[in-house]
Give the backbone structure.
Amino acid sequence: MYDPKSPKAGEFISHEEVLQTLAYAEENKNNIPLIDEILEKARTKKGLSHREAAVLLDCDIPEKNEEIFRLAKQIKRELYGNRIVMFAPLYLSNYCINGCVYCPYHLKNKNITRKKMTREEVQREVVALQDMGHKRLAIEAGEDPKNNPIEYILDCIDAIYQVKHKNGAIRRVNVNIAATTVEDYRRLKDAGIGTYILFQETYHKDSYEKLHPTGPKHDYAWHTEAMDRAMEGGIDDVGLGVLFGLELYRYEFAALLMHGEHLEAAYGVGPHTISVPRIRPADDVDPGTFDNGIDDDIFAKLVACIRLSVPYTGMIVSTRESKECREKVLDLGISQISGASKTSVGGYCEPEKEEENSEQFDTSDKRTLDEIVHWLMGMGHIPSFCTACYREGRTGDRFMSLAKSGQIQNCCHPNALITLKEYLEDYASPETKKRGEEMIRSQLVNIPRLKTREKVEAYLDEIVEGERDFRF
Ligand code: SF4
Ligand code: SF4
């Protein structure tokens, strides 16, 4: 039985409810009065139910689709302005006891070199990341209680926060590790993590079990209820995601929104972020063996429909996607992107040797961070290195209430300018610095309150003098 408040995976992601939602969407995909009604609701920025959103996703009336894209762009602008938050993944260890058939780290893959960084190696990677200008990381590790126990992850987090190299600092560590216990989540919370991210991969239980034939991840309920345990352990910023290409995207879309509705119903806090990865080639993984791949147009429609459905949830796109694809979806609702990512263990310090093969997936966008910052500004986006919220205690429902009232903008925009200024002073190439200074000048006027603007101007001067880490 479908029950969004239930703690049981089979009830908050009810297979029957997903199927009924898909049937409802199919029935109504040409129902113009209903589509108009849903679009009207989306315009109020209060979000959509999974059933309403599924109708929009299925709609193939060109004028209505244009309206969906227009509205997604408008909501993105109104709620997120023109800033894009930057982050980088950091792979700690590729030891893994799971059997995920779409990931080269699966236990049976003997082609790849297994690596696990020591504390010193982690710190060397962090120095390399700081030297690029990164302030926000997402750490990644396979599941392996012997090689990567929670103590190892906690030690790495501590190692990362300890590194203070020149003007650099990693100010927020988000964590993407396997589903674990309430107690472990509590320890992660105490270690000062930002968001806990866990991709569901697929919400379709039968497919899930086939795609995860062995290891602890095989347990669908354990994995799907992970966010509930994270919330219980005190982590109130959680990030959802599915790996598009494994199952039918319509199914994943409806279930993903149901997961968000469950978190809202059960804990009063929806997901902090949603990631939209698509399957990519990697060692021992050929995306062609999964016949549910989605093209760029459907991908863009998914992004737009997620934006309308959960306006206050940040949306993340990684370097899995090409420059062209990222360009297309940035306006439609993406609020965070990774830059200059290495998806191998230790890849920031030492380029991967051909025979090592320890990348989790092949990246499409291989540009440097400076190139990405330059490119973003050329399109009118402000690259932001802001990490202020979690450091100011603005997490969970506190964050959501500020986001829903629109007040968060009073922090995001000034913080974007201040952190961009830090980047320009410390890491940018001369061309990027020039473009960035122009951008900051032109964007200062978009700070509505005179007092805040004056404060930002003072901070900008102090950053030139060598001071760092101002925030609102
Ligand atoms: Fe291990 Fe994660 Fe890869 Fe699965 S997806 S094999 S759990 S690293
Ligand atoms: Fe994100 Fe908060 Fe910074 Fe805005 S102020 S960019 S919500 S961390």
